[in-house]
Design brief:
Layout lengths: L8 H7 L3 H7 L15 H7 L4 H9 L8 H6 L6 E2 L6 E3 L10 H13 L4 E4 L5 E6 L4 H8 L15 E2 L2 H4 L8 H11 L10 E4 L13 E6 L2 E6 L11 E7 L1 H18 L6 H8 L2 H11 L1
Parallel strand pairs: 5-6, 6-7
Antiparallel strand pairs: 1-2, 2-4, 3-4, 7-8, 8-9
Amino acid sequence: MRFTLDMKLKDIMSSNPKTAEAMQELGLHCLGCAFSVNETLANAAQMHNIDPNVLLKKVNSVEQGEMSAEAAAKAQPPGGILQMDKKTYSIAPHIPAGVVTPEILRKIADVSEKYHAQAIKVTSAQRIAIVGLKPEDVPKIWDELGMDPGHAVGLCVRSVKVCPGDTFCKRGLQETLALGMEIDKRYHGMQLPSKFKIGVAGCPNKCTDSASVDLGLMGTSKGYHLYVGGNGGVKPRQGNILLENLKKEEILPIMDAVISYYKENAKPQERIGRLIDRVGIEGLREFAEQAKQ
């Protein structure tokens, strides 16, 4: 069969496993990742700065056959993230709201020591990454941890960043931990047109970058401000305040509305901030206001 740019990587490799070697030659080393294999060939080309027509021609030129042992060894193990050396992997267990127990810390320490991890890194997204792992060890480590992977890559909602709020922080004006846990449970890993980051902060200090992520909450003395459209990257964008002084019970229905609007109106790979730049914010604000009522 002839492959097309709108086909998913997993379907291409299922049809002809030998295409994995061709894609690896062009720099696609994430072919075992549960997130990446659900991307289309066009998305993969864009993410890896490859000419999509070159990639398409490459996979269509491959003879039918099985994946070689060498290619299988190079394929990214599920839940693993390829490192700079192109040989080892890191994993990032999901830690909702960044709240961790002594038991979890012991598990992470034990498996890191057992499998000779090169480093343990607390990430900016409130995860704990175990770095420098052999690919053959990654499945065993996940099995021993008994934890879910944090969504650190892919076109989906990433781990939700949450500050201590008024539960612990003397500057906290609103509750964040229970709310952040609920938001994380509701959206973490949800497939969207592009990657999507959420931050929940209990005061105007915005320690979780609420004004520079796709969707952010900031506690005030009167409720919560809701920001949309922030992002970092090569073309950083400051978020817009969408609604102000929301009550806690209003937040989830409004967030549902914002994400629904984004899913229905965004182009592939388009962050919500770029959507707002393209069509304006009033339509989104009106849609969100309706959910508030």
